[in-house]
Amino acid sequence: MRATNPTEPVCSESALPRLKANVYDLGLKQDADGRLRRIRDLEHENALLMRMVSETQIELARLRELLSSN
Domain of life here (predicted)? Predict the structure, then answer.
């Protein structure tokens, strides 16, 4: 069965590019926010790893000193 009345678009054609741009911009912003959050997380993880490396080096030096004194 065919519709006898033509359907009208929900939004005008002139609004479509603007709506698509807003959605796309929002997606880019979310991607950028996600990247910034990931960078902060990686920087924090890197700081923790550097701290562990430093503490390990200190512990190795202490153990070497203990071994050499025996």
Answer: Bacteria
User: What digits encode the pLDDT tens for the residues 40-62?
Assistant: 999 999 999 999 999 999 999 99
The DSSP letter of residue 68 is H
d(CA 18, CA 23): 9
Helix (H) or strand (E) holding 65: helix 15-69
d(CA 4, CA 19): 30
pLDDT tens track for 20-37: 555 566 667 778 888 999
Whether the predicted model's global pTM rises above the 0.70 cut: no
DSSP assignment of 1-61 equals ---SSPPPPSS-TTHHHHHHHHHHHHHHHHHHHHHHHHHHHHHHHHHHHHHHHHHHHHHHH
